[in-house]
Amino acid sequence: MEKNTKLIALCENKAKQWLSPFFDQETQEKIKAMLENEDKTDLIESFYKNLEFGTGGLRGIMGVGSNRMNIYTVGMATQGFANYLKKNFADREQISVVVCHDCRNNSRLFAETVADIFSANGIKVYLFDDMRPTPECSFAIRHLGCQSGVNITASHNPKEYNGYKAYWADGAQVLAPHDKGIIDEVNKVNVEDIKFEGNKELIEIIGEEIDKVYLDLIHGISIDPEVISRQKDLKIVYTPLHGTGMTLIPRSLKLWGFENVHCVKEQMVKSGDFPTVVSPNPENGEALTLALRDAKELDADIVMASDPDADRVGMACKNDKGEWVLINGNQTCLLFLYYIIKNRQAKGLMKPTDFIVKTIVTTEVIRKIAEKQNIEMRDCYTGFKWIAREIALSEGKQQYIGGGEESYGFLAEDFVRDKDAVSACSLLAEICAWAKDQGKTLYDVVMDIYLEYGFSKEFTINVVKPGKSGADEIKQMMTDFRNNPPKELGGSKVVTWKDYQTLEQRDANGNVSKLEMPETSNVLQWFCEDETKISVRPSGTEPKIKFYIEVKGTMKCNGCYDRCTSEANNKIAEIKKSLNLN
User: Minimal CA–CA distance to 241: which of 295, 301, 297, 288?
Assistant: First the structure.
C-alpha cells in the first residue's frame, strides 16, 4: 500500500509539470482530468516512467504523459537527434534528413512536428506528401544523399500504438556508436528546449518523383521477366491491411507485368483504426481472412498481405489437396533465397563474390542450400539493421543478393537498407509465376526444397512475464540457463552451446572458441546431435522471453510432409517439456 501511495505521488508530481505554459491547452485539460480522477490507473500508466528512446527509436501507446507517444515525447526525441546531427556533421554546410510516416492515427501530425523541429534547427527536411512504405524512407535517404531520416510508424502493433524509427546516412536504422550517441543527446533534452517553430523554407515536400525512381529500380531486380510475360494472368490477391502498401505494391506488380491483381476492397482504405482486423499483422492468419475469402471466390494462385508500414509480407497458397495454407516466415525466406540462387545460376548471373544473409534464429535449411550451391552465407543478430550492416561492410567488394529473417522480413536489393515488402511482393509473384510455368504451386516448391535439403519445422514460444517482477524473472531464467545449460533436449544430446553475451562457443569435448559478432547480445543457442536448434532471448521491446525451436527430419516423398510435421510436433512437445515450457 505504501509503495502504491509513493508511486501515485511520484506520478502526480510529474503530471503537474505538464501543466506549465510549455504544454498546449488540450494537453493541460487532459492532465487535470487525470489528477482529479479518483481512479489513478491512467495517471500511473501515463507517468510512471519516461518513454525511452532506445537503439531503434521510440514506440508506445499514444496519449498525454511522459510514457506516451505525443508531440512532446516525439519533440524531445527529435530535438536530441537534431543536436547529435549538428555535432556529428559540424563540417557540413547543410545537413539534410528524410521524414516519412505510415497510416496510423497521428502519424501525419508527428511527421510534420518532426519536420518543423529539424528545420527550426537549421536542418533541411525532405517530407513525404503522404504515407509511404518504410523501405521507401530508407531508399530516399540514400537517393537524396541525406545524413539521416525519421519514419513515424509502429509497424504491426495494435492501433493504440505509434513509433519513431531513426535512420542513418546509409539508409539503415542506427547502429553503434550513433545509437548510444543519439540516446545520450535525447536524454539531455527538456520540453522547454524543443524548437517547435519550423522554418518552412527548409522543408521540401517529396512524393511521386521518388516513387518512380524507387519502383523502376525494384523492377530491375526481376530475374526472369519472360516467365512473367507467359504467366501475366497469374491470379494475385493482395491486401495492404489499411496501410502504406496500397500506395506502391499494386503499382509495382503492374510494372513487373502482372495484369490480374485483385486488391481486397475493404482493406484498400487508409485507416489507423484497422477496422477489418483484430491485429494488422500478416503473421496472424486472422489478418488474411478477407483476402482468403476473395482468393476462394476468384480461384486465385497466391494471397499476399503487407503490414501497415509495408516492410513485411505474409502469404498463403494452395497445398497438394487444393486447400489454402499459410506459408510461415522461415518458409517464405527459404522460397526467396532458393529461387534467387537457382535462377541466377540458370541465367548465368551468379558470381563467386555473391553472398546471402540470415539472422541467427532463422532456419538452418538456408545454410544447407548455401553450402550445397557454394554460396557464402552470413549469420547476424535479429533485426534488419544487422543485415544492412553486412551489406555495408562488403559494399564495392562483394554483391549482396538477398537476406531475411523468420519474422516475415526480406530484402532482395541493396539500394534499400531495411526489409522491403514492395520488392518482396513483386518477387514473390515472380516466383509464383515461375512455379506455375512448371505446373506447380508455391507449396510444391517448398516441398521440393525439403526433399532436396531436408525437412525443417520451426516453432516460436513467447513466455510473457509482465511488470518489474516479470523482468526479474526473465533475467533469472537467462542466468539459470547460463549456469545450468541443458545437456539433452527432446531426447537428443546437446553438442554445441553458444552464448552471445560472452561471445563464446563450447562443444561437447569442452573446446571453447570465440563467436565473431560485432557486439554482445543476450542470446543463448543450443545445437543437438539430431540438428535440433534452440535459441533463447529476452524481447527488447516487450515483457517476454522468446524460445525459437527448430527440429529436422527426412522427407523422402512429397506425400511425407504431414508425417514429418507430426513427428516434428511430437519432438517440439518433448523439448518444451525439457525446458519446463508446458
Answer: 288
